[in-house]
Amino acid sequence: MPDTITKLAYQAFQQGKSYFGLAHKAVSTQVMQTVSPPKDLQTTPLDLKSLQLLQQRMGDLLERDWQDAEAGVYPQELLFDNPWDDFFQFYPLVCLDLPKIWERLNKRDHHSFSDNIDTAGYPKYYLQNFHHQTDGYLSDMSANLYDLQVEILFNGTADPMRRRILAPLKQGLAAAGVENGAKVLDVACGTGRTLGMIRDALPKTSLYGVDLSPAYLRKANEDLSAKPGVLPQLVQANGEKLPFVDNYFDGVVSVFLFHELPAVARQNVINEMYRVVKPGGTVVLCDSIQRLDSPEFEAAMENFPAMFHEPYYRHYTTDDLNLRLTDAGFESVSNQVHFMSKYWVCRKPAAA
Ligand SMILES: C[S@@+](CC[C@H](N)C(=O)[O-])C[C@H]1O[C@@H](n2cnc3c(N)ncnc32)[C@H](O)[C@@H]1O
């Protein structure tokens, strides 16, 4: 397909996802206000300037995504990768789950798990209904609905935001001379979206993923094995205590984890990343924007934890992760901001 047609198709695809996310949120908010109006929910509507800025940043993100695919950082097919089967199978369940979410929101019930879920052995901070999700991260149903819920939340930009880690990861591996045959770990890999992207961008890489949720790892295994490519090694583990020997990986990544950790756990995970990455290895993190670099989105950052249960988000938005990374021993720490996400790229000193 000529590039202009592919680009138009990509823009139309993203526009469709964006309209779908907006329509879902508009309708579900209306229904919630009618059947289960939230008590004491204090949010600030975004002003026109912020909305325009958000629109512009989203456009910039999609343009960068297109440019990286066009430049061969990753295959163009990745731009159109969408779990359609999941969409048709699970979208009705996303809607049916909403009344339970509203009930938990109103009752401020953030620690509710079905009776058949074994909650033993998890850190206390993890046993919560993040985003008011039914069963938190601990059921197969939660794992099945998660990707769809995140795509709706971000109006179809969750995958483009995840893909922003690929260029710095590839550059870091190339600089260390290990672009082919490297070992790369995704900490808190969830349902494996990022691992799938790395596998497409770097097919000769040995991939590993850890997550605390057995259900999300099962979903990752199911989705990743349904597509061509070597299956990543998936291990249930806490990012604070990685089950790997020192200096094992050429690259370590993590996407959308740090805002869900208390401060001490954030530092513990960073220290563990430092331990398991080789000297000269690269670490790339992606998470929400922060007050430190995006004060213009103050209202959006206030609204997010009020609407979705995110107990550590407020602290996260002021937490200087550059300092945490340098404290752990990393060097050459640099940052990027794309749409609603921020990135940290750093290296373990070659002589460490
Ligand atoms: C917001 S989701 C992000 C998942 C995935 N990286 C993505 O891009 O969608 C947070 C993930 O972190 C996992 N998680 C939270 N705390 C963790 C910890 N201490 N160690 C390992 N995984 C953790 C959860 O189980 C969940 O899959």
Look at the structure and give the mean pLDDT: 94
Shape-level CATH architecture of the largest domain = 3-Layer(aba) Sandwich
Share in β-strands: 5-15%
CATH class of the largest domain: Alpha Beta
Q: What is the spatial order of strands in the main beta sheet?
A: 3-2-1-4-5-7-6
Identify the bound ligands.
S-adenosylmethionine
The total count of helices amounts to 12
The share of residues in helices is 40-55%
End-to-end gap: 47 Å
- How many domains? The number is 2
User: Considering the protein shown, what is the CATH homologous superfamily of the largest domain?
Assistant: Vaccinia Virus protein VP39
Structural class: alpha/beta
Radius of gyration from the alpha-carbon trace, in angstroms: 20 Å
Unreliable stretches (pLDDT < 50, length at least 5) are: none
Label the overall shape.
globular
Number of strands: 7
Predict the CATH topology of the largest domain: Rossmann fold
Largest sheet: 7 strands, mixed
Order of helices and strands: HHHHHHEHEHEEHEHHHEE
What labels would you give this structure?
single chain, 352 residues, alpha/beta, Rossmann fold, 2 domains, 12 helices, binds S-adenosylmethionine
Structure description:
- The protein is globular and about 60 Å long.
- It has helices at residues 3-35, 48-70, 84-107, 140-153, 158-163, 166-175, 193-201, 214-225, 263-276, 298-307, 313-317, 321-328; strands spanning 183-187, 206-211, 233-236, 249-255, 277-288, 331-338, 341-347.
- It folds into 2 domains: 2-153, no CATH class; 158-347, Vaccinia Virus protein VP39 (Rossmann fold, 3-Layer(aba) Sandwich), CATH 3.40.50.150.
- Strands 3-2-1-4-5-7-6 form a 7-stranded mixed β-sheet, sandwiched between helices.
- The termini are far apart.
- The chain is 48% helix and 14% strand.
- It has 12 helices and 7 strands.
- By secondary structure, it is α/β, with parallel strands linked by helices.
- The mean pLDDT is 94.
- The site of S-adenosylmethionine (SAM) has 22 residues, from helix 7 and strand 2.
